[in-house]
Amino acid sequence: MKWFFILLSIIFVYGEVGNLYAKRPNESDKKEQKPLVVCEKISKGNLPVYIKALGNVTSQASVLIKPQISGILTQIHFNDGQDVKKNQLLAEIDARPFEAQLKQYEGQYERDKALLENAKLDLERYKDLNTKDSISKQILDTQIALVKQYVGIVKSDQGLIDTVRVNLNYCKIKSPIEGKIGIRLVDPGNFVQISDVAGIALVNTTNKVRVYFTIPEDEIPRFQKKTNQSEPLIVEAYDRWHNNLLKKGVVETIDNQIDVTTGTIKIKSIFENNDNILFPNQFVNIHLLIDEHKDVLLAPTRAIQLGSKGNYVYVLNDNQTISLKMVEILGQYQNNSAIKGDLNENQSVVVEGGDKLKEGMEVTLSGDEQKDRSSKPKKDKKKDKKV
């Protein structure tokens, strides 16, 4: 029984000692308690200032090809998506009904013209007889009126002939502008008429396009100041995600009034588009270069945090501790921000892992950064001492 209590005491002592060793923090635990951060350096340079807006692409000229007369569409002379020249023949309407009508009106014209000539001859005879008192004045006046009547009929016949000739020209449908034609909307053999809403096809000029967008009225003074300079305002058109630059253009003009419902003003810009990157009715994201911050400190935007006292960054010190520095944001573009504060070029700021940091806290750098930092030659303090 005595040996049982002795054995139990030994087991208890060893258990307590084991717990003490288990609770003692080793050097690796201490190292793991330091927050792991990723840092990037502050640079110095210029930061452009852009106004961003949603733009709508339109062609300089857009014409819906529609028939000017009603008839059977007999031929199509273009391929879908083809580049067409001005006055190029695009389609034809059956001209036979109008050719027959032209012959009819020309016949009426010749008949009425002959009647007019005969009435004029009779008028000359009546005038001679009237001077000899052989006929009454009433008969002469009647003949004068008859000549005027035939003159009117001949003019009417000539008008009908001209109208039919115009309609014959409309039987050949030509492109009024140079550009790219779209997909045809009707096939040969269909009866087309003036009231058709869809038309035959659409022609757009694509080598040069306009992009319309709006800016807030508060930006007008800065916009006007920029336009008063000799250089044109540069407009950049980006894709939906603001990643790919599609085209660069220039501002052409600004509207003469503000839209009171939105508090914005419309701006028209022009883009060269020989490679057909932009399409009419396409929506693009517009970046309007309005100003530039020159020779400023540039910090990664993700390094800037917002606190109760304003914006701040964590700066990495030489002893791998961090310091909090208040900053003022002058502008932002893409991944960089122009800042103002107690900072210097080439200082490292924390861009990842800064959520739970505090002033003066010692941190652990990521593997690559720690390697780069340790590979730098250290200064010999003995050499720096003054004799």
Entry keywords:
single chain; 387 residues; alpha+beta; conserved putative lor/sdh protein from methanococcus maripaludis s2 fold; 21 strands; 31% helix
Tell me what the structure shows:
The chain has 387 residues and is α+β, with helices and mostly antiparallel strands. The protein is 31% helix and 36% strand. The protein has seven helices and 21 strands. The chain has a six-stranded antiparallel barrel with strand order 2-11-14-13-12-15. A hairpin with a 5-residue loop joins strand 17 and strand 18 (322-333). The chain is elongated, with a radius of gyration of 44 Å. The relative contact order is 0.18. The model is unreliable at 381-387 (pLDDT under 50).
In short:
The protein has 387 residues and is an alpha+beta fold.
